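seq as requested:
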Amino acid sequence: MSVRLMVVDDHRLLAEALASALKLRGHRVLAAAAPTAGSAELVVSRAPEVCLFGTASPAAPGVFDPIARIAQERPQVAVVVLGPVPSPRGIAAAFAAGAAGYVRHDERIEGVERAMLKARAGESAIAPQLLRGAFAELLNPAAQPDDEGRRLLRMLTPREAEVLVRVAEGEDTRVIAAGMRIAPSTARTHVQRVLMKLGVGSRLEAAALAARTGLLDRAAGNGGGAPYNGYAPEPGPSSGPSASGAGAAGA
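struct tokens:
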């Protein structure tokens, strides 16, 4: 049964690939668009039966705002979110915004089609096991990310918290040093201390842990080094970026 639909995703290549696959299966694709942040106006103007809404960050603040606008201005459009296995908050946020379904982005095309048809028919389109997993986590949380993030933040000095934010943004040692007006050797020491305190072996692991526990949001919201309880003086030399001791990016 053909569905008149639109595909939006933060990655145009993914949107166009899925749109092409659905066209080959007989569906009428009105548009494939990116990014999702600017999709609401296009969906509202085209008024498809179903909108497939791809996101890699279902827990990010405001990610589902376009869905809320679509639900308000075109309530007849059924929006199905395609994303990774989210936290219960991610699923709840999607449905609270007005989504009609949530499908894992590694689902087979047949599963996406089934979700589209269910959503168009006014049914909730979400895999039972995904829903059960979400409710199980909500009822029996293994750990509270906010509490864990708070605990980890108390372990870091203000300088180290700022370094963590910069590491998560992909800055290397020299860029961190220049941005913080410290020597590269000092920046490297901060990075090493952050990894040690968080109990991880790489910058990537540190960024992932910080995002998962809410530590990154707390560190960024703390002003990237504003004073807070548990302050300790920074180690190593405190000379500016022109000081000696320049080293290669890393740690």
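The chain has twelve helices and six strands.
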